[in-house]
Amino acid sequence: MADLICASSLSHAPHLIRELGGDPADVLARLGIDPDVVGAYDRFVPFSVLSTLIGTCAEELRVPDFGLRLAHRQDPDILGPVAIVARNAETVGAALRGVTEFAHVYSPALATQLTVGDTEATYEFTTLLHLLPHRAHVVELALGVTLGMSRTLAGPDFRPQRVTFQHQRISDMQVYTDYFGCPVEFGADRNLMVVPRGVLDRRLPTGDPLAYDLAVRYMAGRKPDVAFGDAVSALITRALPAGAATLTAIAELMMLHPRALQRRLAESGQTFESMVDDIRRELAVTLLAKRDVPLSAVAQQLGYSEQSALTRSCRRWFGVTPLAKRRELSVA
Asked: Which of 130, 149, 179, 251 has fewest C-beta within 10 Å?
């Protein structure tokens, strides 16, 4: 399973770190997070890095409820198109079902499930990664965001009936009861938010059927395997300038064996090598169109150690040298 999550999950983290007396630039640098991707809806970061950031800040800043504090600041719109589906559904229940169906678009490393009974409904959150540092902290962040989303949908007076966590308590009990407004249990079998069954039938007054349909249509084409391929592409693009876009390196980032990564890509008719080549070609076109970018810099951004490698690739891709392709793009 891909160790990735949308970079919008980091929204407001630098501000919170600074307010608590920390140095966000230092924390991001130590974890290898590009500050420019923080809050971006179209970029991915390793899920394990998000979890490590929350746990590290909780320990170093001596704020064990750092995950809940961050969740309190984050708007449900960090979920991107998933949030569009939720906001524009007909009912609260339809909104939560949309979130569970398309959670993989936000992160292929998590899963949610909505189970509806006679008198109550349960919303379950699961992290699919077996080896995840500071798991308890990222789970609290996730259920904290879920509470915020539920209040956006059902109204500010919304309160769960109870919340359960698999991990043991890491903050004072009063922190949890104040935050969730209901009994909170620890050491449970599942991570759950339990709500009255009737809440699901509440109609959402601001729903836009067109926006809902467009978002669903967009995400319907992003099945888990497709989202997996997109996540691999994002990591390759990020790793190319450092010359680290190798099968072994990307598989390690995704916490997969290289053969498992190749097998997952093969299921959607792709190979790692072809993906790297395609990404390089597309990036070459973009960079060669910028006349102020030296050819040596183009080669470096594509992960080549020598400019001659760029020349050979351009001849293979376009049938001409990099300089000739640049001239062609300038004319166009």
From this structure: 130
Q: Is the dihedral of CA 245, 81, 77, 152 positive or negative?
A: negative
Contact call for residues 161 and 182 (beta carbons, < 8 A): yes
DSSP 198: G
pLDDT category of residue 253 using cuts at 50, 70 and 90: low
Q: If pLDDT is split at 50, 70 and 90, which confidence band does 227 have?
A: low
Q: How confident is the model at residue 224 (pLDDT cuts 50, 70, 90)?
A: low
Q: The pTM is what?
A: 0.69
CB 298 within 8 A of CB 282: no
Q: Is the model's pLDDT at 208 over the cut of 80? A: no
Domains (range + CATH), the chain: 5-220 (3.90.1520.10), 224-331 (1.10.10.60)
- Whole-angstrom distance, CA of residue 37 vs CA of residue 107: 16
Task: State residue 255's pLDDT score.
Answer: 58
Distance CA 42, CA 52 (A): 21
Buried b (16+ CB within 10 A) or exposed e, 18-45: eebebebeebbeeeebeeebbbbeebbb
48 phi and psi angles, rounded to 5 deg: -65, -30
Output the pLDDT for position 32. Answer: 87
3-state secondary structure at position 44? strand
Question: Is the CB of residue 51 less than 8 Å from the CB of residue 134?
Answer: yes
